[in-house]
């Protein structure tokens, strides 16, 4: 049976170049006789080749038009148009946001747009100007300027609430500080007091919420820090673990230190075609409520900047293999603010079902009652790789080939290493061999929970948990070419 081309019962079948060329050669022989010269160097042969190429391109164009109506094969504007039919728009890149604490002298103004960065990395700008002051602290260290004496009163007033200790004979600085720590931690404010040497540190529990402080003359500030929010200068996904924003790029008199006591909210890269397809499929469930697919789809659609969401339910009467309580619901979600996620999750979740997750947010329901909503944020597993490239003798390896390989690996990882996706060592071949001039490559990988370099590497796949995401950066790639 002759092959059918074009739209068939099996879909689109393009006519290949060889078939088109053969048909044109047959037409030429029918018109000019079988003796016509159709060799590659003849005029007629060259004309047939050119026409066959043009017809092939038309077939490819027709195939692309056909594919543009299918959400699984459409790309670019065509895919965006299909997604728009169900109210979905492609997501652009967003910027990483880092809540930070700025330390220095009391009364120091820090202007909007102040620049800070990771060491030798992304530039961040202060989103709103702040002033380091006693009315706006997030982290402080307090000490006694002199040894205590009997009947001396020591008071730390936080958000208008006094915490007091009256010294007795033979008290030391440590005793006074320890007593104040006990009093502060027994209070209801979202702050934590701790001992550093013989000094008292008070820090906001979330590392960002400000509190006011006043001291009696028997105490003094040794270090003060006020909160501010830094936003990346350019859009894109930038991981910002605790303590990563430390470089003061723009000096301000009175400003001595910057750090982030909590992890930043990573921005996102431009949504890929595959991600858009997944969101479109999920949108088909958004008319529902309280089912796992509906909760997942609506959180993706209705909470700003959410890039990943997966819903898990434990409908049994006992704790499941992943640690979820009986009859509980867990949402693993990436992106969006905690407050936005919690508010929407409360409205979408089934009545009477418990929430499960490490992130806990207190919201107020429609009756004005407080409710605790829990969900999970994916924790990073920092990926590392050691790669030795053997150059090819048959193809030129670029002078910047090592850097190209590093960039290719990171770009591939950003596209493919999503939440709960295992690190598959053989998959590294995809970006590695996208760079020309490589004959072979040996690879070893590792994954750590912190940015401390691993003690050893392996040559097998590394599993990633359902609440984890593998993160890769150029700084964690050791690539050499021989």
What features would you describe in this structure?
It is elongated and about 120 Å long. The chain is built from nine helices and 25 strands. It has helices at residues 17-32, 43-67, 76-84, 173-185, 273-283, 292-302, 338-348, 401-416, 429-432; strands at 6-8, 11-13, 97-104, 109-110, 115-117, 123-126, 130-131, 139-143, 153-158, 161-166, 191-196, 199-204, 213-215, 220-232, 247-248, 255-259, 308-314, 328-334, 354-356, 359-364, 370-375, 379-391, 438-448, 468-471, 477-481. It is 24% helix and 29% strand. The mean pLDDT is 90. It has 482 residues and is of the alpha+beta class. The chain folds into four domains: 6-67, no CATH class; 97-259, no CATH class; 285-375, GMP Synthetase, Chain A, domain 3; 380-481, no CATH class.
Supply the key terms.
482 residues, 29% strand, 4 domains, GMP Synthetase, Chain A, domain 3, elongated, 9 helices, alpha+beta, 24% helix, nine-stranded antiparallel β-sheet, four-stranded mixed β-sheet
């Amino acid at each position: 049976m002759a092959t059918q081309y074009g739209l068939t019962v099996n879909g689109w079948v393009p006519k290949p170049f060889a078939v088109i060329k053969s048909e044109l050669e047959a037409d030429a022989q029918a018109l000019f006789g079988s003796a016509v010269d159709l060799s590659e160097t003849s005029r007629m042969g060259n004309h047939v080749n050119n026409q066959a190429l043009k017809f092939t391109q038309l077939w490819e164009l027709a195939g692309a038009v056909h594919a543009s109506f299918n959400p699984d094969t459409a790309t670019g504007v065509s895919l965006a148009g299909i997604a728009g039919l169900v109210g979905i728009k492609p997501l652009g890149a967003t910027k990483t946001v880092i809540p930070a604490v700025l330390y220095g002298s009391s009364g120091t103004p820090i202007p909007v747009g102040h620049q800070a960065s990771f060491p030798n990395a992304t530039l961040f700008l202060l989103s709103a100007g702040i002033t380091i002051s006693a009315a706006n602290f997030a982290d402080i260290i307090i000490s006694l300027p002199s040894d205590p004496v009997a009947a001396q009163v020591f008071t730390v007033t936080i958000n208008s609430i006094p915490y007091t200790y009256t010294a007795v004979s033979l008290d030391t600085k440590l005793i006074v500080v320890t007593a104040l720590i006990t009093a502060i931690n027994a209070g209801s404010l979202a702050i934590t007091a701790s001992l550093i040497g013989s000094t008292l540190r008070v820090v906001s529990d979330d590392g960002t919420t400000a509190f006011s402080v006043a001291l009696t003359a028997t105490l003094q500030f040794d270090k003060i820090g006020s909160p501010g929010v830094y936003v990346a200068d350019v859009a894109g996904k930038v991981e910002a673990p605790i303590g990563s924003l430390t470089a003061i790029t723009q000096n301000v008199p009175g400003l001595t230190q910057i750090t982030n006591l909590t992890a930043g909210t990573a921005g996102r890269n431009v949504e890929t075609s595959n991600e858009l397809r997944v969101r479109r499929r999920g949108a088909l469930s958004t008319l529902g409520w309280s089912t796992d697919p509906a909760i997942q789809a609506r959180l993706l659609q209705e909470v700003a900047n959410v890039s990943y969401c997966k819903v898990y339910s434990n409908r049994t009467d006992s704790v499941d293999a992943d640690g979820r309580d009986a009859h509980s619901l867990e949402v693993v979600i990436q992106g969006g603010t905690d407050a936005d996620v919690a508010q929407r999750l409360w409205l979408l979740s089934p009545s009477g079902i418990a929430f499960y997750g490490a992130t806990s947010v207190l919201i107020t329901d429609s009756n004005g009652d407080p409710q605790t909503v829990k969900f999970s944020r994916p924790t990073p597993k920092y990926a590392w790789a050691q790669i030795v490239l053997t150059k090819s003798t048959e193809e030129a390896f670029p002078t910047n080939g090592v850097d190209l390989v590093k960039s290719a690996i990171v770009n591939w990882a950003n596209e493919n290493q999503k939440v709960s996706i295992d690190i598959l060592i053989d998959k590294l071949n995809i970006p590695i061999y996208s760079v020309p001039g490589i004959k072979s490559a040996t690879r070893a990988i590792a994954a750590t929970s912190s940015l401390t370099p691993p003690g050893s590497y392996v040559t097998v796949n590394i599993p990633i948990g359902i609440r984890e995401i593998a993160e890769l950066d150029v700084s964690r790639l050791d690539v050499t070419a021989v």
